[in-house]
Structure formats: structure tokens, C-alpha cells
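task queued by scheduler; priority normal; single chain, no ligands, no partner chains; default sampling; output format set to C-alpha cells
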Amino acid sequence: MGFGGVSLWQLAIVLGIVVLLFGTKKLRNIGGDLGSAVKGFKKAMSEGVLSDDKKKETSAVESKQETEALESKKDAEFVESSAESSKVEETAETDKNDKKS
């Protein structure tokens, strides 16, 4: 008994007829074309998955960059406000010194 009621001898006869009709060279080319098509399909599927992962990584990097930009902006504002407050203090001290004189 063979595959689904087809015996091994029947498969061998069908294979022999196919080889006689198409020839081994043409069958080899068809097999190579079919193999490269399957390989291309697998590559496209893996690139599709990778591109989704890259999109996630890109959005994570962008959000990290935005966070860093906001933190640096806050730092810059803090430095500016510190500089302004020190200028105000210096002005106040200068006014006090002027009044004492």
C-alpha cells in the first residue's frame, strides 16, 4: 500500500512518464524556479516581520529622543531661571549698597 491508495509502482510509472515528457533538464529548471520562489517568499515574510520590529524600535528611539529633548529643555529653563534669579539678587545687593552709601 502506498500514499492514499496509490502504490509505489504507480508513482514510479507517473514519474517516468513526466520525465519522458519534459526531460530531466526542464524538470531541474522547474525545480530550481520553484525553490527560488519559495526562498523569495520566505525572505519577504521575514523582512515583513523585521520591518514591523524596526518600526517598533524606531518609535522607541524617537520617544527616547523626545524625552531627552524635553529634559534638556527643562534643564536649560532651570539654568536660565537660576541666572535670572542671581541677577535679581545681585541687583538687590547693589541697591542695598547704594542706599547704605
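post-processing summary
- The chain has one domain: 8-91.
- Residues 8-91 form one domain.
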